[in-house]
Amino acid sequence: MIKDIVKDDPILGQPCEPATAEDAAVVQDLLDTMADSEEAACLAANQIGVAKAVFVYRDKKQHTHAMFNPVLKRGLRPQRVKEGCLSHEEETKSRRYDQIVVEFDELKDGALVHRRREFAGWTAQMIQHMIDHCNGRLV
Ligand SMILES: [Zn+2]
Description:
The protein is an alpha+beta fold.
């Protein structure tokens, strides 16, 4: 279901609760809402008003992914970048790693499976932005 995107709301400033396999419906809402917005390439659950640590993103091949309970384990080559956010009007400067290692859970056949993966460049930047959302941090 397409949801309204939350802007400047206290929920965005609170760390999210761990997400579970029961939150599959939230993922569907995130995918529907992201598909409805032309500018969105990623969306966190608290941006649609659900304080759970899960987000979706679209990669360069236009494939969509959902990440549950993401944790940044390692970052290389920090740099200053300008970033926009659907929940925030102005572009902001932040510090992002160009290459990261993330641990997260992935939903597979109705259960969460633990994963560890490396990301670089634009995808890495987007994932760091989403992890910040899950931790209740806005750019
Ligand atoms: Zn954002």
